[in-house]
Amino acid sequence: MISMPASHSCRRLAHQDRNGRSPWGGDPDDRWETALVGGRGPWRTAVVRLTDRVELRPRPALTLDTATSADDWVVSRFGSIAAADVVIDGAVAFTAVSVYAAWERTASGTLYADGSAHRVLSDLSALMPRPNHRLVIAGDWNVLRGYGEHGDPYWRARYDTVFERAEALGLTFVGPQAPNGQQANPWPDELPTDSLCVPTFHHSRQKPATATRQLDFVFASTSLADRIEVRSLNAPEEWGPSDHCRVAIDRPVTRRSERRWTSDYHR
Prior knowledge:
By secondary structure, this protein is α+β, with helices and mostly antiparallel strands. It has a single domain, classed as Deoxyribonuclease I, Chain A. The protein has helices at about 115-125, 155-170, 220-225, 255-265; strands at about 1-5, 35, 40, 55-60, 60, 75, 80-90, 90-100, 105, 110, 135-140, 170-175, 215-220, 230-235, 245-250. The chain has a 6-stranded mixed sheet with strand order 4-7-8-11-13-12. The longest helix has 16 residues, at about 155-170. The two termini are about 25 Å apart. The model is unreliable at about 10-20, about 25-30 and about 260-265 (pLDDT under 50).
């Protein structure tokens, strides 16, 4: 089994690719940050290898002010995307992507993040020039699925566009969702009765046991979606140190299926 845990408690890393360049540009010791309106946050997305069964080949993501070539992959917000090809037996099996859709604020003070989520999808389009792409994308999207805050239909419609656009790009929502994670208890008034959402975030007045909203979602290329299992590790005893719980993304494999998976990638 190949596991791809998604976590919001990553530590600062100093990593360079085979050419000596940081995957996120600049000095890796000085670039552990995410560009935000009015400053930079001391965190960022990351893809980290946890086993020697695979090799990672970073996909450097640069911004306009750090790109030096037309061949560079340019993203909208520094720190919002990290990507790496996962290599098994010398062949690329898929590309793992960690994303973060930052909150923004209107002139009147309303918070929103669907704009950032759409920018992330725009940036990821560079990794999807053809429909046979093979991506597994996980992160904090800061949107809701299937409803709006306090039942607001306007915000539901806005959030729906993120999932619809992902689908149009060939990305299937693969979880987490019930029964692969605990659902909110008691049931929130804003949550539709047929929702499969599982809480992945708790605010400062909540604990893991009282969390109500899911902000973290996993998408996979259509060609991979039925081969991936996603679980929300949101029980209090397995939540972890962050305000976001961990999410486990598993790919049950044998050596034979690994070879088939990597060979399919190059067709």
